[in-house]
């Protein structure tokens, strides 16, 4: 059964990576017409409704007690907090640079998991993370001297910590079906985001541009429902620190798509940085797991 579970996790990892790679570009298009918190609230509100419909068709039961509370907390940490910060940051950052900063999630997840006694410290995991982050920096050529406002940088780093803590926390929660966990989590996040949008005085309007509608449709179906169901499957099989390597591979997809659709500069550094990213993921997430098995 273990090889089958590993193959399923690897397939889920690859699918989530490809789908998530387009998310930041979709958010950039959404932000051009919709206020950030309002756009995020609409996205996760619609995704939650779609997931509850799937839940009903599959005849899955809603969690109760600690499982319900855990799903709500997971939703706040994995959707509500990080995406409110990420939507704000992507008003100012290109998708590639934004995903570069999120590539720090595996390192943050590892450190939080060790601090909370969930994982033993493995040198290979730290080495793999550092190699992969170096590759992301080469790919994106994100200069430290870039004129990025401090609140924007802090928002991106806050999203990193929130994603990381969610990946660590979910292993301590009662196991819930990925569809159910994401339905409840996105529903809780949507409530939080709608409240934040109201408090911020956002304009609650529907898009007028076709590009915005297409971006929202992608973010709801592929970027939320499919991506995070697959991501939660990977967490449940590999654990948070290894699953978080998705955030390191995603920038490769994000930079290519952003260069195609959002005019983000694309250079030959992609050919140098991509092998570093893949080596880092192999050393930190895949090789170490096989050795321990």
From TrEMBL:
It is a multi-pass membrane protein. Pfam families: EamA. This is EamA domain-containing protein. The chain crosses the membrane at residues 40-60, 67-90, 96-115, 124-144, 150-170, 182-201, 213-234, 243-261, 267-286. PANTHER family: EAMA DOMAIN-CONTAINING PROTEIN, INNER MEMBRANE TRANSPORTER. It is found in: Membrane. Keywords: Membrane, Transmembrane, Transmembrane helix. Belongs to the EamA transporter family.
């Amino acid at each position: 059964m273990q090889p089958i579970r590993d193959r399923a996790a690897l397939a889920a990892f690859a699918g989530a990576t490809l789908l998530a790679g387009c998310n930041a570009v979709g958010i950039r298009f959404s932000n051009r017409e919709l206020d950030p918190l309002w756009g995020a609230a609409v996205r996760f509100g619609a995704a939650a409704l779609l997931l509850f419909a799937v839940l009903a068709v599959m005849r899955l039961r809603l969690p109760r007690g600690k499982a319900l509370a855990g799903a709500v907390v997971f939703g706040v940490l994995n959707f509500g907090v990080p995406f409110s910060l990420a939507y704000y940051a992507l008003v100012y950052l290109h998708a590639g640079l934004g995903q570069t900063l999120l590539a720090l999630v595996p390192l943050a997840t590892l450190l939080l998991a060790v601090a909370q006694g969930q994982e033993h410290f493995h040198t290979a995991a730290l080495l793999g993370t550092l190699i992969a982050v170096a590759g992301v920096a080469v790919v994106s050529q994100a200069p430290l001297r870039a004129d990025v406002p401090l609140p924007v940088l802090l928002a991106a780093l806050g999203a990193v910590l929130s994603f990381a803590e969610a990946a660590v926390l979910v292993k301590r929660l009662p196991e819930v079906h990925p569809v159910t966990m994401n339905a409840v989590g996105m529903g809780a996040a949507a409530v939080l985001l709608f409240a934040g949008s109201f408090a911020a005085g956002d304009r609650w309007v529907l898009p007028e541009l076709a590009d915005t509608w297409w971006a929202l449709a992608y973010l709801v179906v592929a970027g939320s429902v499919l991506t995070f169901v697959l991501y939660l499957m990977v967490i449940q099989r590999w654990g948070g620190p290894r699953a978080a390597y998705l955030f390191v591979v995603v920038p490769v997809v994000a930079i290519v798509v952003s260069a195609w659709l959002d005019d983000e500069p694309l250079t030959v550094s992609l050919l140098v940085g991509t092998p570093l990213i893949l080596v880092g993921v192999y050393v930190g997430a895949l090789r170490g797991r096989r050795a321990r098995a």
